């Protein structure tokens, strides 16, 4: 069953197994998005639980079956995360390092690393990239995460963050400019890695 059929089974028949399947199918994406914004496992768990509580209670009232269910859920997760950040009266700075448990580019296959030296250089480049991404302004970091980690389209990013597509594109453009400036201060090999990535 696709998401649409599972949602309909849950809404019309109260099929708990259908909702469990939806949760199992998408929980990693939702959790990792929240974590990428707050970088704190306990806070992430709280916001994740809040998100799915709202999903269950609001599905009958506010979900429009014309749209993708996961896009609707991601919007709820996004709003809950932003609300949490605003309550703290400041945006959270990401202090991830190359040794962090969370690695932005773990999803990439290392196709070029044929020996230990190449592997080490590749990991150093990934760590350096993560460090620079973490130092971007929040709006730019968010677009980079959504585009490259969550593989969302700019239309989806614009809808999720409640901005125009041009604004989302502009934030990505400035993020890339800033990243290139950061890497320009480092050695040529790392900079070439970013250009290829």
Automatic annotation (TrEMBL):
The keyword tRNA-binding does not apply. Gene3D superfamilies: 1.10.1740.10, Winged helix-like DNA-binding domain superfamily/Winged helix DNA-binding domain. It comes from the Bacteria. Keywords: DNA-binding, Sigma factor, Transcription, Transcription regulation. One of its GO terms (biological process) is DNA-templated transcription initiation. Residues 22-90 form the RNA polymerase sigma-70 region domain. Residues 129-167 form the RNA polymerase sigma factor 70 region 4 type domain. GO terms for molecular function: DNA binding; sigma factor activity. The keyword Transcription regulation applies. InterPro entries: RNA_pol_sigma-70-like (IPR039425), RNA_pol_sigma-70_dom (IPR014284), RNA_pol_sigma70_r2 (IPR007627), RNA_pol_sigma70_r4_t2 (IPR013249), RNA_pol_sigma_r2 (IPR013325), RNA_pol_sigma_r3/r4-like (IPR013324), WH-like_DNA-bd_sf (IPR036388). CDD domains: Sigma70_r4. Belongs to the sigma-70 factor family. ECF subfamily. This is RNA polymerase, sigma subunit, ECF family. The lineage of its organism: Bacteria, Pseudomonadati, Balneolota, Balneolia, Balneolales.
